[in-house]
């Protein structure tokens, strides 16, 4: 792979079958964003959907010379955005209420291909942190009607659509400014509104009930507002059509709900939208552009600049299975090549977008998650080593999970400022005073840090607290998490806490997928877990006692039954004079599974006898006869095998 080649070139090298496809059907690629952009109109095409007349009126106040046009069965309004100097053409369509109507219209707009940005602008009910008139730009839209009803209880199953990352980032910038607050319709009264970027709920009902509102806040604790069209709009988000939902809070979603505050809320949302579009033009479309042969052009041509190519490239890494493999080597090679090709400003933009892309695990499946993490870690390592002007402290506040995954590397953690390092650890396992469960990707990074001794003792203690809170199912996903899973299981089984012990045993020995016998634990780890289970059973943990019955143990492979038998012979000591009443259970389990001979051979071949303390020659015969007696109630063939084992074992024990 040649350094400096664009992503499209590397993709062709990685996938020969794709080369033939591209010859027949050339499609735009990340590396050729500038040629794609030059074919577009010189002006930004924006379509704004609304549901209510007051929303349409509020938007049209920011559109110059808006004129009605017939389009199919609809009347649309087309004009120029005020203050855009003719660079932004806005089409306003009032589609009416509901996600279904909105999704249908959004699909038609996507199919026409003439819109660069698609927005839904209007009002919403507040859920938390909002005053009437405040504005929310949606980072994601959650559909509230997907759920499971069981035993009369409704269990929410959240379904999320992400809004376009570039628009979300511009909205964050607009929300920091106060210019848009002064652009509201003169009739607006009261304190200046504030703007937030966060989750919005979308459904098919108007909420005017305080109890229902509380349930929504409980089931969707991240959500700031609720409305009826955003999910339909966000369903068409993609690399060729960028979407965003912008809402003004018009009521509190309770019995006080009325229509009186709708115009003011719509005005605030429209004013924010107008300023957002001007910011987009200034930040995204106006900077220095890279054209044709790589020469720099500082004149504003209206073409899409490098920042959008960064977003496109990140989306391609996240979605294109043919780009590269998910191996460490290929991901690092691609990251190095991209880093070498970009200038410092573009490298900083990459870091920010990679952190944002990694921040939401729900967008990634296993393959793309591995590839994104490996690519991003390598890119971040280069950025840290070359001391790029990336404000990691700020990124760890805005996108804590994503930025932490990029920085949580043994070779990098020690070189970070102490505050940044603390933020990394807190993002992975929660703050010291309030630990939280790890995410799947967080567990991956923590496992790497632990294996390299990159963490301090205090940080290790924080990791243990987080491990205790993390469900086993999270830690077991993927080979990266298994070292953490072994640590957690070992501590739980040795804790003396019956609930923790029983939960660990149930997970290890679940009938549909016995994790104790998986190849992800090596044989020494499996033996350790067997000893801990037997210890928990002796301590009285009922779950461990149930797991060490004849029927349950008969399912264990011979090496694990051999370990259980040795535990009963020695009780973890270096002699054979400990209580051994459970030996009959293990022998019966081995006999039931047909592996008794194999179990005995495993112990004899392991050299365990030489590990015991020396014994007196005078007591060998008496002790041997006593030990053989434990097989007295077994069938004759089992007695023969057991006697053979005892004879061979005593031959191996050192003599005084």
Q: Would you kindly provide a brief summary of this structure?
A:
The chain is an alpha/beta fold and about 650 residues long. It is built from 30 helices and 14 strands.
Summarize the structure in words:
The strands form three sheets. A five-stranded mixed barrel has the order 5-11-10-6-12, surrounded by four helices. It has a two-stranded antiparallel ribbon with strand order 7-8. A two-stranded antiparallel sheet has the order 13-14. Among the domains are: 44-285, Nucleoside phosphorylase domain (Rossmann fold); 471-548; 579-656, no CATH class. With 656 residues, it is α/β, with parallel strands linked by helices. The longest helix is centred in the middle third of the chain and has 24 residues, at 262-285. A hairpin with a 6-residue loop joins strand 3 and strand 4. Mean pLDDT is 80; it is low at 1-6, 8-41 and 287-306. It is built from 30 helices and 14 strands. Helix 1 (7-14) packs across helix 2 (16-24), helix 23 crosses helix 26 and helix 26 runs antiparallel to helix 27. Helix content is 50%, strand content 14%. The chain is elongated and about 110 Å long. One of its GO terms (molecular function) is methylthioadenosine nucleosidase activity. Residues 48-281 form the Nucleoside phosphorylase domain. Pfam families: PNP_UDP_1. This is Nucleoside phosphorylase. One of its GO terms (biological process) is nucleoside metabolic process.
């Amino acid at each position: 792979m040649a350094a400096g080649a664009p992503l499209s070139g590397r993709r062709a090298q990685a996938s020969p079958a794709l080369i033939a496809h591209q010859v027949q059907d050339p499609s735009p690629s990340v590396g050729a964003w500038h040629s794609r952009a030059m074919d577009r109109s010189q002006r930004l095409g924006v379509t704004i959907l609304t549901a209510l007349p007051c929303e349409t009126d509020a938007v049209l106040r920011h559109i110059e010379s808006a004129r009605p046009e017939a389009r199919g069965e609809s009347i649309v309004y087309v004009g120029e955005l005020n203050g855009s100097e003719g660079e932004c053409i806005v089409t306003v369509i009032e589609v009416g209420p509901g996600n279904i109507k909105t999704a249908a219209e959004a699909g038609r707009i996507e199919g026409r291909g003439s819109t660069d940005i698609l927005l839904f602008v209007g009002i919403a009910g507040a859920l938390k942190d909002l005053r009437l008139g405040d504005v929310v730009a949606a980072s994601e839209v959650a559909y509230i009607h997907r759920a499971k009803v069981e035993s009369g209880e409704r269990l929410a199953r959240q379904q999320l659509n992400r809004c376009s990352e570039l628009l979300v980032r511009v909205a964050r910038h607009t929300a920091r400014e106060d210019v848009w607050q002064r652009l509201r319709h003169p009739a607006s009264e009261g304190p200046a509104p504030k703007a937030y970027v966060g989750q919005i709920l979308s459904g098919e009902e108007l909420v005017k009930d305080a109890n229902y509102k509380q349930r929504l806040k409980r089931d969707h604790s991240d959500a700031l507002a609720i409305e009826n069209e955003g999910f339909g709009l966000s369903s068409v988000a993609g690399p060729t059509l960028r979407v965003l939902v912008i809402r003004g809070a018009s009521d509190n979603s309770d019995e006080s709900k009325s229509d009186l505050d709708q115009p003011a809320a719509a005005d605030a949302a429209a004013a924010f939208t107008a300023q957002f579009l001007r910011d987009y033009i200034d930040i995204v479309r106006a900077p220095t552009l890279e054209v044709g042969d790589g020469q720099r052009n500082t004149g504003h041509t209206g073409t899409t600049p490098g920042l959008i190519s960064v977003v496109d490239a990140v989306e391609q890494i996240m979605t294109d299975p043919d780009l590269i493999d998910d191996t460490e080597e290929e991901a690092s090679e691609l990251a190095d090549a991209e880093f070498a090709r970009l200038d410092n400003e573009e490298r900083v933009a990459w870091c920010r977008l990679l952190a944002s892309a990694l921040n939401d695990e729900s967008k990634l499946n296993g393959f793309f998650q591995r590839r994104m993490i490996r690519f991003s870690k390598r890119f971040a390592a280069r950025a840290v080593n070359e001391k790029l002007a990336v404000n990691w402290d700020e990124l760890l506040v805005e996108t804590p999970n994503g930025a932490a995954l990029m920085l949580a590397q043994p070779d990098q953690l020690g070189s970070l400022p102490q505050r940044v390092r603390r933020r990394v650890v807190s993002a992975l396992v929660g703050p010291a005073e309030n630990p939280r469960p790890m995410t799947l990707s967080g567990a991956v990074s923590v496992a790497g840090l632990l294996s390299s001794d990159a963490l301090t003792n205090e940080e290790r203690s924080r990791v243990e607290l987080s491990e205790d809170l993390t469900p086993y199912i999270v830690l077991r996903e993927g080979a990266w998490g298994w070292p953490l899973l072994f640590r957690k299981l070992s501590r739980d089984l040795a804790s003396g806490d019956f609930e923790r012990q029983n939960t660990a045993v149930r997970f290890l020995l679940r009938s549909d997928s016995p994790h104790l016998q998986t190849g992800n634990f090596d044989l020494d780890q499996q033996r350790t877990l067997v000893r801990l289970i037997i210890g928990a059973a002796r301590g009285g943990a009922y779950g461990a006692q149930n797991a060490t019955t004849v029927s349950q143990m008969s399912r264990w492979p011979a090496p694990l039954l051999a370990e259980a038998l040795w535990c009963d012979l020695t009780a973890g000591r270096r002699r054979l004079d400990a209580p051994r009443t459970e030996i009959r259970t293990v022998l019966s389990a081995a006999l039931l599974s047909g592996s008794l001979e194999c179990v005995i051979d495993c112990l004899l071949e392991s050299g365990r006898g030489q590990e015991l303390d020396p014994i007196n020659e005078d007591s060998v015969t008496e002790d041997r006869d006593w030990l053989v007696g434990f097989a007295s109630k077994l069938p004759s063939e089992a007695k023969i095998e057991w006697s053979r084992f005892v004879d061979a074992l005593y031959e191996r024990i050192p003599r005084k």
